[in-house]
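Researcher: We plan to redesign the surface later, but first we want a full-length starting point. Tokens attached.
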């Protein structure tokens, strides 16, 4: 990481020295705009964390205290008091990780087929499937719940996880990325006697890491923050996810405990921050998926 930062600094200095006065003014304005936008974007996160560690008496103070006068964990104690937070965390992790793993697998398999295989009706089938993204998610709630009820999957892990195992966005993303991979590698592996499973496992999956990282981040964050479906399909406290469980904080008393809610939000944000930084080196590369072809 230090070597990369030094390289970026050298490139910036070289560009600054080679730039004309007008270009330097543009660079300064660009950096000011970017830094300002970053501050505005990060401020809600800062306010959430700072409120979570404020003493309860300072949470609703007027005028607001931008910097906590002291660090207190009382809000976290209040958020976790009399709540099975460990069980809710397990449920959220199980749902988010299971859906992410299966979506990555199914999306990559389907994306590989649509990108590199030739079969009748390939384009028509692909665009029909992708066009299903235009169907509002709320329109599927009642049919999905009816289906889960008929199969006896209400208030179960399978009922919680099954509706998210595959999604057209993931297939579209991976198809666009796999289209950029050289077909010659696949043909060479086939000539050398590599099976379809071998081509997929040894060539497609390793070369698709940037796209998989981007899709994995999107899916994990979406499932980790999911609220409506877990609220509908789960009816016991032990099966709740963090989003549903912590939402009950607002109904424990006649007043809303904003400090406890901010503490709960901070706790939930830790997993997303960890996942993002764990895969950030692939994110920039993978987010440009489809920029070369497709």
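Model: Full-length starting sequence:
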């Amino acid at each position: 990481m230090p070597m990369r930062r030094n390289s970026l600094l050298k490139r910036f200095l070289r560009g600054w020295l080679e730039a004309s006065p007008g270009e330097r003014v543009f660079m300064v304005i660009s950096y000011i705009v970017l830094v300002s936008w970053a501050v505005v974007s990060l401020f809600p996160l800062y306010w959430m964390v700072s409120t979570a560690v404020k003493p309860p008496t300072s949470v609703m103070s007027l005028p607001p205290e931008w910097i906590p006068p002291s660090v207190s964990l009382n809000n976290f104690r209040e958020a976790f008091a009399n709540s099975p937070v460990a069980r809710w965390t397990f449920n959220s992790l199980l749902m988010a990780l299971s859906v992410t793993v299966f979506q990555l697998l199914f999306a990559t398999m389907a994306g590989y087929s649509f990108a590199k295989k030739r079969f009748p009706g390939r384009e028509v089938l692909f665009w029909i499937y992708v066009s299903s993204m235009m169907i509002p998610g709320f329109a599927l709630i009642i049919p999905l719940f009816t289906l889960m009820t008929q199969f006896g999957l209400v208030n179960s892990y399978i009922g919680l996880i099954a509706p998210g195992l595959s999604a057209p966005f993931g297939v579209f993303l991976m198809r666009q990325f796999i289209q950029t991979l050289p077909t010659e590698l696949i043909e060479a592996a086939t000539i050398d006697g590599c099976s379809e499973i071998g081509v997929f496992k040894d060539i497609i999956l390793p070369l698709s890491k940037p796209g998989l990282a981007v899709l994995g981040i999107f899916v994990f964050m979406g499932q980790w923050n999911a609220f409506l479906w877990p609220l509908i399909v789960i009816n016991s406290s032990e099966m709740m996810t963090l989003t549903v469980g912590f939402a009950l904080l607002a109904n424990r008393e006649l007043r809303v405990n904003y400090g406890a809610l901010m503490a709960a939000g901070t706790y939930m944000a830790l997993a997303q921050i960890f996942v993002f930084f764990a895969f950030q080196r692939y994110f920039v590369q993978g987010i440009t998926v489809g920029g070369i072809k497709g």
